[in-house]
Amino acid sequence: MIPAQIFNQINDKCTEGLALALASNDDGAVMELQWCNKAFTKITGYEASEAVGQRGTILIGQDLEQGVHLYIIEKLMNWENFSTKALNNRKNGEVYWQRMSWAHLSDPETGNRWWLCSIIELEDERAEPAKDAMKEAAISDQESFERVFKKVHRLEKENARLHKLAKSVAKDANEDALTGLSNRRHFEVELKTWIENLKKHQTEFAVLYIDLDRFKFVNDTLGHDAGDRLLVSVADMLRELTSKSDLVARLGGDEFVILKPLAKSALNISSLADEIVQRMQAPFTCEGKSTACSASVGVAIAKTNMEDPDQIVADADAALYHAKSQGKGRWSFFTEEMHANAIATKKLASDLLLACERREFVPYFQPLIDAQTGRIACAEMLVRWAHPTKGILAPAAFLDTAANMGILKRVDEIIFDSLNGALFHLDESGVDLPRVAVNVSAARLADPTFIHDIKSSGIDPQRLTVEILESVYLDRMGDVVRWTIDELDELGVTIALDDFGTGHASVRGLLEIRPSILKIDRHFIQPIVADAAARPLVASIVGIGKSLGMRVVAEGVESEEHARLVSEMGCDYLQGFYFGKPMSEDDLRDRLIETGGKFWTRRPLELDDDLKRGMGRAV
User: Fold this and answer.
1) Contact status, residue 114 vs residue 21, Cβ threshold 8 Å
2) Which CATH architecture describes the domain 360-618?
3) What is the architecture, at CATH level 2, of domain 184-334?
4) DSSP assignment, residue 527?
5) Cβ(113)–Cβ(34) below 8 Å
6) What is the DSSP track for 103-116?
7) What radius of gyration, in Å, describes the C-alpha atoms of the chain?
8) Who wins on pLDDT, 504 or 546?
9) Which of 122, 157, 165, 253 is 20 to 30 Å from 475 by CA-CA measure?
């Protein structure tokens, strides 16, 4: 291992200018400088603080010959190691001779691609042409003519080569390197032209937005080479189904788009969408291995009477989202209803940002009752939005949009802060609320800052229960989630697994997490009063929890019969509308004062034969 002191001396004393740039995987000519040594700053005139974070284009001076510039772009785009010798400019515009070399590097762990750039300042070579001129004056006129002729011929060839190179560079700038279709850059330029023609000449057109439904699965199971082959085959299929007047582009990843002129009816558009979906139903085979990879298509029509034609691609994307939400492997037209939903979503997103600024999210509480004593043992905290005009909104009205916007962390921070304040007020009022429970998604558990948010909230961890949702995904979340759960346990936070039995929480997840509390989903609890056949299943789930040393919560308790049945089955805690709907901090305080914390008196229940048999099997 090289000592740090030795490495630092190399950085200080190396006279060759060195820089490292992180390159785009799609285009080697697109890069961002990440590091440079002292010699680099001395030669180029750019301080490290000025160069790092900049594009590699800062190394191209105004006096660098165009031919050399095009040559550099060509080599970079093709990921070729190369070297050039030319006049270039320092940061201050000063001209100097340099030798610039580029070497391609790659990181096998991350797959990132890098460039190592080396710059050496050369001796001033401007005197050389004068020496050549003196020699030329001494040779014969015939020799001079031949040299001039050869030089002109050489320049013509070089000019032709550069012209060909310029065309190649222009082509590469417009084409997707893998499929040969138009790339995103070219598509966006062409789209503007199509929209201008729509406004000026009423040439209506359709946009078909295509997304492969299981592309990640293909990459994960067959490898990235197979994924690339699939993308190429999809591109070939789209070329086959479209005409020369259409524009077909790959926007990146597994997303494609088609611009197609509108005929007298939209029938040819729907036929094309249907054909794409049908073709993609066929299995994809690579090196003897076969898999399915369907496609979903969103279609939008750009018409002359549109208020905002620039929105047409977003409309097609909305139609694609609708097709996927309906089960994938299908296509959908953009409708006025989708338009209204899109407007509503934009308005909701704007309101949510304001709500974060104004701290409009408030905690509501639903009691959990000890099945033995009937006293409150905990209160599940549920987020509500105190909307200034619409009143109190439940999570279903805004939580999905907040997640898509990436602001759930901000909502959590507001709620945790409010929750700490609510607990302080309840304690000041003299009422007894032993614990509070909060719902946390698996995605939030995968956020390394979650533990910090809990610690900084000021809430006593011994008084907090974290209810994990979507635990079916926990096995794929990796070490971060495992670390988070271990940290919560070390802090003294109680772990509960919510909605067990619905498919959102697996038995495997139950064994992996080993929560202290298991919550049975309301859909299992609600039918047990009217349907005796439903009771043995609930008893079995209780038996699973008890066998693993867990306390069990019955959700969805809506009547006295519910409460008595599940308590006799062995449930430790009861939760449901029978004991109270989610309520504000003030309403919870009043209810606790009114009841003294006791919500229910347990009465014995004579179990029927079906229930006894079910409980026997559970044990």
Assistant:
1) yes
2) Alpha-Beta Barrel (3.20)
3) 2-Layer Sandwich (3.30)
4) G
5) no
6) EEEE-TTT--EEEE
7) 34
8) 546
9) 253
